[in-house]
Protein backbone atom coordinates (compact mmCIF):
# COMPACT_ATOMS: atom_id res chain seq x y z
CA UNK A 1 0.00 0.00 0.00
CA UNK A 2 1.28 3.48 -0.91
CA UNK A 3 2.29 5.55 2.08
CA UNK A 4 -0.17 8.27 3.02
CA UNK A 5 0.90 11.80 2.12
CA UNK A 6 2.48 13.48 5.14
CA UNK A 7 0.19 16.53 5.03
CA UNK A 8 -2.92 14.37 4.95
CA UNK A 9 -1.57 12.31 7.84
CA UNK A 10 -0.78 15.50 9.78
CA UNK A 11 -4.19 17.09 9.20
CA UNK A 12 -5.97 13.87 10.15
CA UNK A 13 -3.91 13.58 13.34
CA UNK A 14 -4.65 17.21 14.20
CA UNK A 15 -8.40 16.69 13.74
CA UNK A 16 -8.26 13.53 15.87
CA UNK A 17 -6.35 15.32 18.65
CA UNK A 18 -8.71 18.31 18.57
CA UNK A 19 -11.70 15.95 18.67
CA UNK A 20 -10.42 13.47 21.23
CA UNK A 21 -12.86 14.30 24.03
CA UNK A 22 -15.93 14.95 21.87
CA UNK A 23 -15.29 11.86 19.76
CA UNK A 24 -14.98 9.67 22.84
CA UNK A 25 -18.23 11.07 24.25
CA UNK A 26 -19.93 10.19 20.99
CA UNK A 27 -18.55 6.65 20.89
CA UNK A 28 -19.50 6.10 24.52
CA UNK A 29 -23.04 7.25 23.77
CA UNK A 30 -23.27 4.92 20.78
CA UNK A 31 -22.07 2.00 22.91
CA UNK A 32 -24.78 2.75 25.47
CA UNK A 33 -27.39 3.08 22.72
CA UNK A 34 -26.35 -0.25 21.26
CA UNK A 35 -26.69 -1.94 24.64
CA UNK A 36 -30.06 -0.33 25.34
CA UNK A 37 -31.67 -0.53 21.89
CA UNK A 38 -29.84 -3.27 20.06
CA UNK A 39 -32.62 -5.85 20.21
CA UNK A 40 -36.30 -4.98 19.72
CA UNK A 41 -37.40 -8.26 21.34
CA UNK A 42 -36.97 -6.56 24.71
CA UNK A 43 -39.94 -4.29 23.93
CA UNK A 44 -43.38 -5.00 25.33
CA UNK A 45 -45.76 -7.11 23.29
CA UNK A 46 -48.19 -4.23 22.74
CA UNK A 47 -45.37 -2.02 21.48
CA UNK A 48 -44.24 -4.72 19.08
CA UNK A 49 -47.75 -5.38 17.85
CA UNK A 50 -48.14 -1.71 16.93
CA UNK A 51 -44.87 -1.86 14.97
CA UNK A 52 -45.78 -5.05 13.14
CA UNK A 53 -49.46 -4.29 12.38
CA UNK A 54 -48.85 -2.79 8.96
CA UNK A 55 -46.28 -5.35 7.83
CA UNK A 56 -48.78 -7.84 6.41
CA UNK A 57 -46.94 -10.92 5.09
CA UNK A 58 -43.74 -9.96 6.93
CA UNK A 59 -45.42 -10.12 10.34
CA UNK A 60 -44.42 -13.72 11.17
CA UNK A 61 -40.79 -13.10 10.24
CA UNK A 62 -40.66 -9.96 12.36
CA UNK A 63 -42.46 -11.44 15.35
CA UNK A 64 -41.14 -14.97 15.59
CA UNK A 65 -37.62 -14.97 14.15
CA UNK A 66 -34.47 -13.00 14.84
CA UNK A 67 -34.25 -11.75 11.26
CA UNK A 68 -32.89 -8.27 10.65
CA UNK A 69 -35.45 -5.53 10.04
CA UNK A 70 -34.25 -2.58 7.98
CA UNK A 71 -35.56 0.95 8.43
CA UNK A 72 -35.95 2.87 5.17
CA UNK A 73 -35.72 6.65 5.49
CA UNK A 74 -36.96 8.17 2.26
CA UNK A 75 -36.75 11.69 0.90
CA UNK A 76 -39.16 10.80 -1.91
CA UNK A 77 -41.28 13.37 -3.61
CA UNK A 78 -42.10 13.62 -7.29
CA UNK A 79 -41.47 17.35 -7.65
CA UNK A 80 -37.72 16.82 -7.30
CA UNK A 81 -36.42 15.07 -10.39
CA UNK A 82 -33.61 13.44 -8.40
CA UNK A 83 -36.01 11.93 -5.88
CA UNK A 84 -38.87 11.00 -8.20
CA UNK A 85 -37.43 7.50 -8.86
CA UNK A 86 -37.52 6.76 -5.11
CA UNK A 87 -41.31 6.32 -5.26
CA UNK A 88 -40.85 2.70 -6.35
CA UNK A 89 -37.88 1.87 -4.15
CA UNK A 90 -39.51 0.73 -0.88
CA UNK A 91 -41.62 -2.03 -2.43
CA UNK A 92 -38.61 -3.36 -4.33
CA UNK A 93 -36.37 -3.11 -1.28
CA UNK A 94 -38.80 -5.15 0.80
CA UNK A 95 -38.58 -7.91 -1.79
CA UNK A 96 -34.77 -7.71 -1.81
CA UNK A 97 -34.74 -7.99 2.00
CA UNK A 98 -36.92 -11.11 1.92
CA UNK A 99 -34.45 -12.72 -0.50
CA UNK A 100 -31.91 -12.85 2.33
CA UNK A 101 -34.35 -13.72 5.10
CA UNK A 102 -34.82 -10.17 6.37
CA UNK A 103 -37.58 -7.56 6.37
CA UNK A 104 -37.78 -3.84 5.63
CA UNK A 105 -40.18 -1.07 6.55
CA UNK A 106 -40.42 2.59 5.67
CA UNK A 107 -39.44 4.00 9.03
CA UNK A 108 -40.23 7.55 7.99
CA UNK A 109 -39.82 10.30 5.44
CA UNK A 110 -37.97 13.58 5.40
CA UNK A 111 -38.72 16.82 3.56
CA UNK A 112 -36.69 17.40 0.43
CA UNK A 113 -36.53 20.82 -1.16
CA UNK A 114 -34.76 21.89 -4.32
CA UNK A 115 -32.52 24.94 -4.37
CA UNK A 116 -32.91 25.00 -8.13
CA UNK A 117 -36.64 25.70 -7.72
CA UNK A 118 -36.34 28.21 -4.86
CA UNK A 119 -33.20 29.94 -6.14
CA UNK A 120 -33.60 33.70 -5.83
CA UNK A 121 -37.02 33.48 -4.15
CA UNK A 122 -38.36 33.50 -0.61
CA UNK A 123 -38.38 29.73 -0.17
CA UNK A 124 -34.58 29.63 -0.43
CA UNK A 125 -34.40 31.11 3.07
CA UNK A 126 -35.67 27.77 4.44
CA UNK A 127 -33.06 25.79 2.54
CA UNK A 128 -30.10 25.54 4.91
CA UNK A 129 -32.30 24.90 7.94
CA UNK A 130 -34.12 22.16 6.07
CA UNK A 131 -30.94 20.17 6.80
CA UNK A 132 -31.65 20.39 10.56
CA UNK A 133 -35.27 19.46 9.92
CA UNK A 134 -34.19 16.43 7.85
CA UNK A 135 -31.82 15.31 10.61
CA UNK A 136 -34.57 15.58 13.20
CA UNK A 137 -37.04 13.81 10.90
CA UNK A 138 -34.54 10.97 10.61
CA UNK A 139 -34.31 10.83 14.39
CA UNK A 140 -38.10 10.71 14.74
CA UNK A 141 -38.27 7.83 12.27
CA UNK A 142 -35.54 5.87 14.02
CA UNK A 143 -36.86 6.60 17.52
CA UNK A 144 -39.19 3.60 17.29
CA UNK A 145 -36.09 1.43 17.85
CA UNK A 146 -37.48 -1.36 15.70
CA UNK A 147 -34.62 -1.51 13.23
CA UNK A 148 -31.29 -3.25 12.78
CA UNK A 149 -30.00 -1.06 9.96
CA UNK A 150 -30.76 2.16 8.08
CA UNK A 151 -31.30 2.41 4.32
CA UNK A 152 -31.09 6.10 3.44
CA UNK A 153 -32.76 7.35 0.27
CA UNK A 154 -31.60 10.87 -0.49
CA UNK A 155 -29.45 12.72 -2.99
CA UNK A 156 -29.75 16.48 -3.11
CA UNK A 157 -28.23 19.47 -1.44
CA UNK A 158 -29.22 19.52 2.25
CA UNK A 159 -30.83 16.10 2.18
CA UNK A 160 -27.74 13.89 2.29
CA UNK A 161 -26.01 15.99 4.98
CA UNK A 162 -29.23 15.98 7.02
CA UNK A 163 -29.58 12.21 6.68
CA UNK A 164 -25.94 11.73 7.67
CA UNK A 165 -26.34 13.93 10.77
CA UNK A 166 -29.56 12.22 11.84
CA UNK A 167 -28.30 8.70 11.14
CA UNK A 168 -25.07 9.31 13.06
CA UNK A 169 -27.08 9.81 16.23
CA UNK A 170 -28.16 6.18 15.72
CA UNK A 171 -24.62 5.15 14.86
CA UNK A 172 -24.85 1.92 16.86
CA UNK A 173 -26.60 0.67 13.71
CA UNK A 174 -25.14 0.26 10.21
CA UNK A 175 -26.29 2.55 7.42
CA UNK A 176 -26.09 2.54 3.66
CA UNK A 177 -27.02 5.24 1.16
CA UNK A 178 -28.99 4.12 -1.88
CA UNK A 179 -28.79 6.64 -4.77
CA UNK A 180 -31.05 6.85 -7.80
CA UNK A 181 -28.70 8.35 -10.41
CA UNK A 182 -28.55 11.32 -12.81
CA UNK A 183 -30.92 12.21 -15.62
CA UNK A 184 -29.61 11.89 -19.20
CA UNK A 185 -27.51 14.77 -20.49
CA UNK A 186 -29.42 17.61 -22.08
CA UNK A 187 -28.26 20.63 -24.04
CA UNK A 188 -24.58 21.55 -23.91
CA UNK A 189 -23.71 23.39 -20.72
CA UNK A 190 -21.94 26.19 -22.58
CA UNK A 191 -25.14 26.83 -24.54
CA UNK A 192 -27.20 26.96 -21.36
CA UNK A 193 -24.77 29.41 -19.75
CA UNK A 194 -24.71 31.58 -22.88
CA UNK A 195 -28.50 31.85 -22.89
CA UNK A 196 -28.53 32.80 -19.20
CA UNK A 197 -26.08 35.63 -19.81
CA UNK A 198 -27.97 36.83 -22.90
CA UNK A 199 -31.15 36.94 -20.81
CA UNK A 200 -29.35 38.89 -18.06
CA UNK A 201 -28.29 41.40 -20.73
CA UNK A 202 -31.86 41.63 -22.08
CA UNK A 203 -30.90 40.16 -25.45
CA UNK A 204 -33.24 37.15 -25.34
CA UNK A 205 -36.68 36.79 -23.81
CA UNK A 206 -38.14 34.63 -21.05
CA UNK A 207 -39.58 32.06 -23.47
CA UNK A 208 -36.16 31.34 -24.99
CA UNK A 209 -34.60 31.14 -21.53
CA UNK A 210 -37.26 28.69 -20.33
CA UNK A 211 -36.76 26.47 -23.38
CA UNK A 212 -33.03 26.42 -22.69
CA UNK A 213 -33.48 25.55 -19.02
CA UNK A 214 -35.99 22.79 -19.80
CA UNK A 215 -33.54 21.39 -22.32
CA UNK A 216 -31.10 20.96 -19.45
CA UNK A 217 -33.44 19.86 -16.63
CA UNK A 218 -35.79 17.58 -18.47
CA UNK A 219 -36.50 14.19 -16.88
CA UNK A 220 -36.30 12.09 -13.68
CA UNK A 221 -32.85 11.89 -12.15
CA UNK A 222 -30.33 14.17 -10.54
CA UNK A 223 -29.37 17.40 -12.32
CA UNK A 224 -26.25 16.61 -14.26
CA UNK A 225 -23.95 19.50 -13.30
CA UNK A 226 -21.45 18.95 -10.50
CA UNK A 227 -23.19 20.98 -7.82
CA UNK A 228 -24.01 20.06 -4.26
CA UNK A 229 -26.24 17.08 -5.08
CA UNK A 230 -23.66 15.24 -7.16
CA UNK A 231 -20.90 16.29 -4.76
CA UNK A 232 -22.96 14.54 -2.07
CA UNK A 233 -22.90 11.33 -4.08
CA UNK A 234 -19.17 11.57 -4.63
CA UNK A 235 -18.58 12.08 -0.90
CA UNK A 236 -20.73 9.11 0.10
CA UNK A 237 -18.42 6.93 -1.97
CA UNK A 238 -15.31 8.60 -0.54
CA UNK A 239 -16.65 7.86 2.96
CA UNK A 240 -17.57 4.28 2.04
CA UNK A 241 -21.27 4.80 2.85
CA UNK A 242 -22.67 3.53 -0.44
CA UNK A 243 -21.71 0.82 -2.90
CA UNK A 244 -18.71 1.40 -5.19
CA UNK A 245 -19.49 3.12 -8.47
CA UNK A 246 -23.17 3.54 -7.63
CA UNK A 247 -23.35 7.34 -7.66
CA UNK A 248 -23.85 8.08 -11.35
CA UNK A 249 -25.63 5.04 -12.79
CA UNK A 250 -28.82 6.31 -14.49
CA UNK A 251 -32.23 5.65 -12.93
CA UNK A 252 -34.66 3.03 -14.22
CA UNK A 253 -31.94 0.82 -15.68
CA UNK A 254 -31.16 -2.85 -14.94
CA UNK A 255 -27.78 -1.89 -13.44
CA UNK A 256 -29.41 0.65 -11.11
CA UNK A 257 -31.90 -1.98 -9.91
CA UNK A 258 -29.09 -4.48 -9.38
CA UNK A 259 -27.18 -1.98 -7.27
CA UNK A 260 -30.22 -1.25 -5.13
CA UNK A 261 -30.72 -4.96 -4.59
CA UNK A 262 -27.06 -5.42 -3.69
CA UNK A 263 -27.25 -2.49 -1.25
CA UNK A 264 -30.13 -4.11 0.63
CA UNK A 265 -28.37 -7.48 0.75
CA UNK A 266 -25.20 -5.84 1.99
CA UNK A 267 -26.99 -3.83 4.66
CA UNK A 268 -28.49 -7.04 6.05
CA UNK A 269 -25.02 -8.61 6.17
CA UNK A 270 -23.52 -5.73 8.18
CA UNK A 271 -26.19 -5.62 10.88
CA UNK A 272 -25.62 -7.19 14.28
CA UNK A 273 -27.69 -10.09 13.03
CA UNK A 274 -25.51 -10.50 9.97
CA UNK A 275 -22.10 -12.03 9.50
CA UNK A 276 -20.11 -8.79 9.49
CA UNK A 277 -21.46 -6.04 11.81
CA UNK A 278 -20.36 -2.53 10.81
CA UNK A 279 -21.98 0.20 12.93
CA UNK A 280 -22.02 3.63 11.32
CA UNK A 281 -20.30 5.17 14.36
CA UNK A 282 -17.21 3.09 13.62
CA UNK A 283 -17.31 3.82 9.90
CA UNK A 284 -17.54 7.61 10.10
CA UNK A 285 -14.30 8.51 11.85
CA UNK A 286 -11.68 11.23 11.26
CA UNK A 287 -10.25 9.37 8.28
CA UNK A 288 -13.63 9.09 6.56
CA UNK A 289 -14.28 12.80 7.06
CA UNK A 290 -10.85 13.64 5.63
CA UNK A 291 -11.55 11.35 2.67
CA UNK A 292 -14.76 13.30 2.00
CA UNK A 293 -12.77 16.55 2.05
CA UNK A 294 -10.17 15.07 -0.31
CA UNK A 295 -12.82 13.90 -2.77
CA UNK A 296 -14.39 17.35 -2.74
CA UNK A 297 -11.04 18.97 -3.52
CA UNK A 298 -9.87 16.47 -6.13
CA UNK A 299 -13.09 16.80 -8.12
CA UNK A 300 -13.78 20.52 -7.67
CA UNK A 301 -17.01 19.88 -5.79
CA UNK A 302 -19.53 22.25 -4.27
CA UNK A 303 -18.47 24.99 -1.87
CA UNK A 304 -21.64 24.29 0.11
CA UNK A 305 -19.71 21.46 1.71
CA UNK A 306 -17.49 23.94 3.49
CA UNK A 307 -20.62 24.25 5.67
CA UNK A 308 -21.99 20.71 5.49
CA UNK A 309 -18.75 18.84 6.22
CA UNK A 310 -18.16 20.51 9.62
CA UNK A 311 -21.81 19.87 10.51
CA UNK A 312 -21.66 16.19 9.55
CA UNK A 313 -18.39 15.77 11.40
CA UNK A 314 -19.84 17.34 14.56
CA UNK A 315 -22.61 14.76 14.60
CA UNK A 316 -19.88 12.10 14.98
CA UNK A 317 -17.96 14.06 17.62
CA UNK A 318 -15.36 15.29 15.13
CA UNK A 319 -14.26 18.93 14.90
CA UNK A 320 -13.32 20.05 11.38
CA UNK A 321 -12.53 23.65 10.41
CA UNK A 322 -11.72 25.60 7.26
CA UNK A 323 -8.04 25.63 8.08
CA UNK A 324 -8.09 21.84 7.67
CA UNK A 325 -9.78 22.15 4.28
CA UNK A 326 -7.32 24.83 3.20
CA UNK A 327 -4.28 22.73 4.16
CA UNK A 328 -5.66 19.64 2.47
CA UNK A 329 -6.37 21.72 -0.61
CA UNK A 330 -2.69 22.68 -0.80
CA UNK A 331 -1.66 19.08 -1.53
CA UNK A 332 -4.69 17.52 -3.22
CA UNK A 333 -4.56 18.25 -6.96
CA UNK A 334 -7.61 18.87 -9.11
CA UNK A 335 -7.95 15.78 -11.30
CA UNK A 336 -11.53 16.19 -12.55
CA UNK A 337 -13.17 18.95 -14.54
CA UNK A 338 -16.94 18.56 -14.43
CA UNK A 339 -19.34 21.35 -15.33
CA UNK A 340 -19.31 24.15 -14.13
CA UNK A 341 -15.53 23.64 -13.91
CA UNK A 342 -15.40 21.90 -17.28
CA UNK A 343 -17.55 21.26 -20.33
CA UNK A 344 -18.77 17.72 -19.58
CA UNK A 345 -21.38 16.77 -16.97
CA UNK A 346 -21.53 13.87 -14.49
CA UNK A 347 -22.65 11.43 -17.18
CA UNK A 348 -19.52 12.23 -19.17
CA UNK A 349 -17.48 12.03 -15.97
CA UNK A 350 -18.87 8.56 -15.20
CA UNK A 351 -18.21 7.37 -18.77
CA UNK A 352 -14.64 8.70 -18.65
CA UNK A 353 -13.78 6.58 -15.59
CA UNK A 354 -15.75 8.32 -12.87
CA UNK A 355 -15.36 7.70 -9.19
CA UNK A 356 -13.52 4.42 -9.69
CA UNK A 357 -10.77 6.18 -11.61
CA UNK A 358 -10.58 9.11 -9.16
CA UNK A 359 -10.34 6.87 -6.09
CA UNK A 360 -7.81 4.55 -7.72
CA UNK A 361 -5.64 7.52 -8.67
CA UNK A 362 -5.85 9.05 -5.19
CA UNK A 363 -5.01 5.73 -3.54
CA UNK A 364 -2.03 5.10 -5.79
CA UNK A 365 -0.63 8.54 -4.91
CA UNK A 366 -1.19 8.17 -1.16
CA UNK A 367 -3.75 10.97 -1.24
CA UNK A 368 -6.58 9.36 0.69
CA UNK A 369 -7.06 6.94 3.56
CA UNK A 370 -7.35 3.45 2.13
CA UNK A 371 -7.93 1.65 5.42
CA UNK A 372 -11.30 3.06 6.48
CA UNK A 373 -14.20 0.75 7.30
CA UNK A 374 -16.69 0.85 4.42
CA UNK A 375 -19.98 -0.84 3.58
CA UNK A 376 -18.08 -2.81 0.93
CA UNK A 377 -15.44 -5.38 1.72
CA UNK A 378 -11.84 -4.36 1.18
CA UNK A 379 -11.80 -0.74 2.34
CA UNK A 380 -11.30 2.01 -0.22
CA UNK A 381 -9.61 -0.34 -2.66
CA UNK A 382 -13.06 -1.74 -3.37
CA UNK A 383 -14.08 1.73 -4.61
CA UNK A 384 -11.43 1.80 -7.34
CA UNK A 385 -13.83 -0.41 -9.30
CA UNK A 386 -16.94 0.02 -11.40
CA UNK A 387 -20.13 -2.07 -11.38
CA UNK A 388 -21.42 -3.91 -14.41
CA UNK A 389 -23.99 -6.54 -15.33
CA UNK A 390 -23.21 -9.74 -17.14
CA UNK A 391 -26.08 -12.17 -17.73
CA UNK A 392 -28.07 -10.28 -15.06
CA UNK A 393 -25.32 -10.84 -12.50
CA UNK A 394 -23.79 -7.83 -10.78
CA UNK A 395 -20.04 -7.76 -10.43
CA UNK A 396 -17.30 -5.17 -10.02
CA UNK A 397 -14.33 -4.78 -12.32
CA UNK A 398 -11.25 -2.59 -12.08
CA UNK A 399 -11.86 0.99 -13.08
CA UNK A 400 -9.80 2.41 -15.96
CA UNK A 401 -6.21 3.09 -14.96
CA UNK A 402 -6.07 6.03 -17.37
CA UNK A 403 -8.68 8.67 -18.19
CA UNK A 404 -10.93 7.80 -21.10
CA UNK A 405 -11.42 11.54 -21.66
CA UNK A 406 -8.30 13.61 -20.86
CA UNK A 407 -10.36 16.81 -20.98
CA UNK A 408 -12.40 15.56 -18.03
CA UNK A 409 -10.03 13.45 -15.92
CA UNK A 410 -6.30 13.80 -15.30
CA UNK A 411 -3.50 11.93 -13.60
CA UNK A 412 -2.22 13.11 -10.22
CA UNK A 413 1.18 13.60 -11.88
CA UNK A 414 -0.31 15.95 -14.51
CA UNK A 415 -3.37 17.51 -12.86
CA UNK A 416 -5.60 20.29 -14.12
CA UNK A 417 -4.44 22.33 -11.14
CA UNK A 418 -1.86 21.55 -8.46
CA UNK A 419 -4.28 22.15 -5.60
CA UNK A 420 -7.90 21.43 -4.77
CA UNK A 421 -9.08 24.97 -5.30
CA UNK A 422 -10.94 25.57 -2.04
CA UNK A 423 -9.06 28.23 -0.17
CA UNK A 424 -9.47 30.02 3.13
CA UNK A 425 -9.32 33.80 2.84
CA UNK A 426 -9.21 35.82 6.03
CA UNK A 427 -8.46 39.23 7.46
CA UNK A 428 -10.31 42.13 9.04
CA UNK A 429 -13.50 41.07 7.26
CA UNK A 430 -13.43 37.64 8.91
CA UNK A 431 -12.94 34.22 7.34
CA UNK A 432 -14.47 33.03 4.09
CA UNK A 433 -14.24 30.34 1.42
CA UNK A 434 -12.85 31.08 -2.05
CA UNK A 435 -13.36 28.41 -4.74
CA UNK A 436 -10.37 29.00 -6.97
CA UNK A 437 -10.83 25.89 -9.14
CA UNK A 438 -13.57 27.58 -11.18
CA UNK A 439 -11.81 30.95 -11.48
CA UNK A 440 -9.02 31.91 -13.88
CA UNK A 441 -5.82 32.57 -11.87
CA UNK A 442 -5.61 36.06 -13.37
CA UNK A 443 -8.67 36.92 -11.29
CA UNK A 444 -7.56 35.43 -7.98
CA UNK A 445 -6.66 38.92 -6.73
CA UNK A 446 -9.26 41.68 -6.91
CA UNK A 447 -8.85 45.06 -5.24
CA UNK A 448 -11.58 47.57 -5.96
CA UNK A 449 -14.08 49.93 -4.31
CA UNK A 450 -17.00 48.24 -2.61
CA UNK A 451 -20.64 48.59 -3.48
CA UNK A 452 -22.65 47.37 -0.50
CA UNK A 453 -26.08 45.73 -0.66
CA UNK A 454 -28.41 44.11 1.83
CA UNK A 455 -30.28 41.92 -0.68
CA UNK A 456 -29.52 40.25 -3.97
CA UNK A 457 -32.55 41.95 -5.49
CA UNK A 458 -30.85 45.31 -4.87
CA UNK A 459 -27.75 44.01 -6.70
CA UNK A 460 -29.84 43.01 -9.69
CA UNK A 461 -31.56 46.39 -9.74
CA UNK A 462 -28.21 48.22 -9.65
CA UNK A 463 -26.90 46.03 -12.47
CA UNK A 464 -29.93 46.74 -14.65
CA UNK A 465 -29.54 50.45 -13.97
CA UNK A 466 -25.92 50.33 -15.14
CA UNK A 467 -24.56 51.33 -11.74
CA UNK A 468 -21.99 48.52 -11.60
CA UNK A 469 -20.21 49.22 -14.89
CA UNK A 470 -16.77 49.54 -13.27
CA UNK A 471 -14.22 47.67 -11.22
CA UNK A 472 -16.17 46.70 -8.14
CA UNK A 473 -16.31 44.37 -5.15
CA UNK A 474 -19.98 43.64 -4.59
CA UNK A 475 -20.64 43.12 -0.88
CA UNK A 476 -23.94 41.41 -0.06
CA UNK A 477 -24.49 41.20 3.69
CA UNK A 478 -27.18 40.11 6.14
CA UNK A 479 -27.33 36.77 4.29
CA UNK A 480 -25.90 34.59 7.09
CA UNK A 481 -27.64 31.85 9.10
CA UNK A 482 -28.83 34.20 11.85
CA UNK A 483 -30.02 36.90 9.45
CA UNK A 484 -32.16 35.03 6.97
CA UNK A 485 -31.12 31.37 6.89
CA UNK A 486 -28.12 31.84 4.59
CA UNK A 487 -29.71 31.48 1.15
CA UNK A 488 -27.72 30.79 -1.98
CA UNK A 489 -27.17 33.86 -4.12
CA UNK A 490 -26.89 32.00 -7.38
CA UNK A 491 -28.92 34.60 -9.31
CA UNK A 492 -25.97 36.96 -8.94
CA UNK A 493 -23.78 34.71 -11.08
CA UNK A 494 -25.13 35.89 -14.43
CA UNK A 495 -24.95 39.68 -13.90
CA UNK A 496 -21.53 39.52 -12.26
CA UNK A 497 -20.35 37.28 -15.10
CA UNK A 498 -21.56 39.86 -17.61
CA UNK A 499 -19.57 42.60 -15.86
CA UNK A 500 -16.47 40.41 -15.80
CA UNK A 501 -16.83 39.60 -19.50
CA UNK A 502 -16.91 43.35 -20.22
CA UNK A 503 -13.39 43.56 -18.80
CA UNK A 504 -14.12 44.88 -15.32
CA UNK A 505 -12.42 43.52 -12.23
CA UNK A 506 -15.31 42.05 -10.25
CA UNK A 507 -15.58 40.04 -7.03
CA UNK A 508 -18.34 39.07 -4.62
CA UNK A 509 -17.98 39.13 -0.83
CA UNK A 510 -20.92 37.79 1.15
CA UNK A 511 -21.99 36.00 4.29
CA UNK A 512 -24.43 34.09 2.11
CA UNK A 513 -23.92 30.88 0.16
CA UNK A 514 -23.00 29.96 -3.38
CA UNK A 515 -23.08 26.39 -4.60
CA UNK A 516 -20.95 24.25 -6.88
CA UNK A 517 -22.66 26.18 -9.67
CA UNK A 518 -21.06 29.44 -8.51
CA UNK A 519 -19.24 29.86 -11.80
CA UNK A 520 -16.27 31.91 -12.95
CA UNK A 521 -16.50 35.08 -10.82
CA UNK A 522 -14.14 35.28 -7.82
CA UNK A 523 -16.23 34.96 -4.66
CA UNK A 524 -15.40 35.14 -0.96
CA UNK A 525 -18.45 33.41 0.43
CA UNK A 526 -19.82 32.13 3.75
CA UNK A 527 -18.05 35.06 5.45
CA UNK A 528 -17.98 34.55 9.20
CA UNK A 529 -18.72 36.24 11.55
CA UNK A 530 -21.84 37.15 9.62
CA UNK A 531 -22.96 40.77 9.45
CA UNK A 532 -25.91 40.37 11.83
CA UNK A 533 -25.00 40.76 15.48
CA UNK A 534 -24.33 37.60 17.44
CA UNK A 535 -26.05 36.61 20.68
CA UNK A 536 -23.78 39.02 22.58
CA UNK A 537 -24.79 41.92 20.34
CA UNK A 538 -21.51 42.11 18.39
CA UNK A 539 -21.96 42.88 14.69
CA UNK A 540 -19.78 41.19 12.10
CA UNK A 541 -17.29 43.35 10.20
CA UNK A 542 -19.33 43.24 6.98
CA UNK A 543 -21.91 45.40 8.79
CA UNK A 544 -19.26 48.16 9.02
CA UNK A 545 -18.27 48.31 5.33
CA UNK A 546 -19.47 51.32 3.34
CA UNK A 547 -19.77 52.11 -0.36
CA UNK A 548 -16.40 53.18 -1.73
CA UNK A 549 -14.26 51.35 0.83
CA UNK A 550 -11.51 49.52 -1.05
CA UNK A 551 -11.77 45.77 -0.49
CA UNK A 552 -9.04 43.28 -1.34
CA UNK A 553 -9.74 39.61 -2.00
CA UNK A 554 -6.74 37.44 -2.81
CA UNK A 555 -6.72 33.66 -3.14
CA UNK A 556 -2.92 33.67 -3.57
CA UNK A 557 -2.21 35.18 -0.14
CA UNK A 558 -5.45 34.08 1.53
CA UNK A 559 -6.51 37.68 2.15
CA UNK A 560 -9.96 39.14 2.82
CA UNK A 561 -9.71 42.72 3.99
CA UNK A 562 -11.07 46.20 3.71
CA UNK A 563 -8.44 48.94 3.37
CA UNK A 564 -10.26 51.26 5.74
CA UNK A 565 -10.37 51.93 9.46
CA UNK A 566 -13.59 50.32 10.75
CA UNK A 567 -13.12 51.44 14.33
CA UNK A 568 -15.75 53.85 15.58
CA UNK A 569 -18.21 53.04 12.78
CA UNK A 570 -21.79 52.20 13.63
CA UNK A 571 -23.11 48.93 12.27
CA UNK A 572 -25.59 49.09 9.42
CA UNK A 573 -29.18 48.43 10.41
CA UNK A 574 -30.26 44.99 9.13
CA UNK A 575 -33.49 44.51 7.22
CA UNK A 576 -36.42 43.35 9.39
CA UNK A 577 -36.99 39.58 9.57
CA UNK A 578 -38.91 38.46 6.52
CA UNK A 579 -42.32 36.84 6.76
CA UNK A 580 -44.26 34.68 4.37
CA UNK A 581 -43.44 31.36 2.71
CA UNK A 582 -43.17 29.90 6.22
CA UNK A 583 -40.03 31.86 7.04
CA UNK A 584 -41.44 33.08 10.34
CA UNK A 585 -41.69 29.46 11.51
CA UNK A 586 -37.90 29.19 11.30
CA UNK A 587 -37.17 32.11 13.63
CA UNK A 588 -35.99 29.67 16.31
CA UNK A 589 -33.39 28.24 13.93
CA UNK A 590 -32.11 31.68 12.99
CA UNK A 591 -31.82 32.87 16.58
CA UNK A 592 -29.85 29.80 17.69
CA UNK A 593 -27.69 29.20 14.61
CA UNK A 594 -23.94 29.14 14.96
CA UNK A 595 -21.37 30.31 12.42
CA UNK A 596 -20.88 29.00 8.92
CA UNK A 597 -17.50 27.48 9.80
CA UNK A 598 -19.18 25.39 12.49
CA UNK A 599 -21.88 24.29 10.05
CA UNK A 600 -24.52 27.01 10.42
CA UNK A 601 -26.75 24.77 12.52
CA UNK A 602 -29.18 25.69 15.28
CA UNK A 603 -29.85 22.05 16.15
CA UNK A 604 -26.20 21.12 16.72
CA UNK A 605 -25.55 24.33 18.64
CA UNK A 606 -28.49 23.78 20.99
CA UNK A 607 -27.50 20.13 21.44
CA UNK A 608 -24.04 21.19 22.56
CA UNK A 609 -22.33 19.20 19.81
TrEMBL record:
- Which reaction equation describes what this protein catalyses? 6-phospho-D-gluconate = 2-dehydro-3-deoxy-6-phospho-D-gluconate + H2O
Q: Which GO terms of the molecular function aspect are on file?
A: phosphogluconate dehydratase activity
Class of this enzyme: lyase
Q: Where is the Dihydroxy-acid/6-phosphogluconate dehydratase C-terminal domain?
A: 409-599
Q: Which residues form the Dihydroxy-acid/6-phosphogluconate dehydratase N-terminal domain?
A: 69-380
Q: Does the keyword Lyase belong to this entry?
A: yes
Q: Which UniProt keywords apply?
A: 4Fe-4S, Carbohydrate metabolism, Gluconate utilization, Iron, Iron-sulfur, Lyase, Metal-binding
Identify the pathway: Carbohydrate metabolism; Entner-Doudoroff pathway
Task: Report the cofactors.
Answer: [4Fe-4S] cluster
Q: Which domain of life is it from?
A: Bacteria
Q: What is its EC number?
A: 4.2.1.12
Please give the family membership noted in the entry: Belongs to the IlvD/Edd family.
Return the NCBIfam families for the record. Answer: edd
Could you tell me what this protein does? Catalyzes the dehydration of 6-phospho-D-gluconate to 2-dehydro-3-deoxy-6-phospho-D-gluconate.
- Protein name as catalogued: Phosphogluconate dehydratase
Amino acid sequence: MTQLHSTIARVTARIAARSRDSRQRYLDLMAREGDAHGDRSSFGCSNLAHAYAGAESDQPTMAFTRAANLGIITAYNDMLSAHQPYGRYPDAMKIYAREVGATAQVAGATPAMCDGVTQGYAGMELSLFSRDTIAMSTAVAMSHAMFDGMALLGICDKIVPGLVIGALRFGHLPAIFVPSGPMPSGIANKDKQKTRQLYAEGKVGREELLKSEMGSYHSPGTCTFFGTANSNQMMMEMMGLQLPGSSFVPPNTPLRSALTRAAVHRLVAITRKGADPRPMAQMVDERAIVNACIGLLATGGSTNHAIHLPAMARAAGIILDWGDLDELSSVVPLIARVYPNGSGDVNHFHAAGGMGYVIGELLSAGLCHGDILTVADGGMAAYATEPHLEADTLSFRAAPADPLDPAMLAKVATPFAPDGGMRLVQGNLGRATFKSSAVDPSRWTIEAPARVFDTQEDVQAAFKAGELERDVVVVVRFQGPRANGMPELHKLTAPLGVLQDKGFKVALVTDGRMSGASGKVPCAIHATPEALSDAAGRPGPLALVRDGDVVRVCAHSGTLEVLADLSGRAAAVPPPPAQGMGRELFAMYRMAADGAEQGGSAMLALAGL
